[in-house]
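User: Is it possible to get a 3D structure for a protein together with its bound compound? The compound here is zinc ion. I've pasted both below.
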Amino acid sequence: MKKSMIAVGCCSMMLAGFFSCNRVQDVATDLLISDEEEIKLGRQYKAQIEADDDEYPLYTAKTGYSDDVVDYIDSIGQNIARHQDDRDIEFTFTVIDNDSVVNAFAVPGGFVYIYTGLIKSARNEAEIAGVLAHEIGHITNRHGAKQMVKQYGIDLLLDVLVGDSSAIRTVMDISSGLLFLNYSRENEFQADSCSVEYLVKTGYNPSGMKTFLEFLADMGGGTAPKLLQFLSTHPPTDERITAVARIIGRKSSDVRSRSIPDVKYTP
Ligand code: ZN
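Assistant: Yes, that's possible. Here is the predicted structure of the complex:
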């Protein structure tokens, strides 16, 4: 009897961690990699990503790109970033020109990327805001930095920071994919939870995150490889929808009935 009560205590605590935006202390990352160092590592990734025109073609490099789209994404992202108070760093939002990829990702240090395919698929601004808030949540919780420490070890990362060329080649090799993006389930649920909290603080109807997940689930859940990358790099959508719905359900009816702005600018 006693044993099962302990088990319940342990699991509900674990669930609370799963579904809460509160940052979980990670001594290795928090003590050994400062904000400045994380930003420095992130800038090196950013340079690698933006030099790879085939895999990550920048929307601003496209002939006839629209400043309105760039400004629109930046203004949504910056607005959310200003309203969260979990982490005081600068955020950058960059659009990648690929209509067949419905995805967004966050690089350590405050760099968020969103594909034109996702902007076009989103039905309204609250959905785009939901995705950007999710990526901001990965950064405020240092998920990428923690993953890098786990993947490469602190010594190798410090070698990168002092400019060791072989360490840079190993860690910054983006040709095999962005390895630090293999977030855990806990990380994904936490970023979803942050997304809801940040949307509420910014003034959005938080249902954007939920309706976008539902939209992805309706599209067939990961059967079209490139199209649904957002799903393949994230845990089962049904579980995420349930978890997000539960968090939204706890918000006031005023928050839940906020009007939802339509998408104004499409690439
Ligand atoms: Zn994520």
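The chain has 14 helices and three strands. Residues 185-202 form the longest helix (18 residues).
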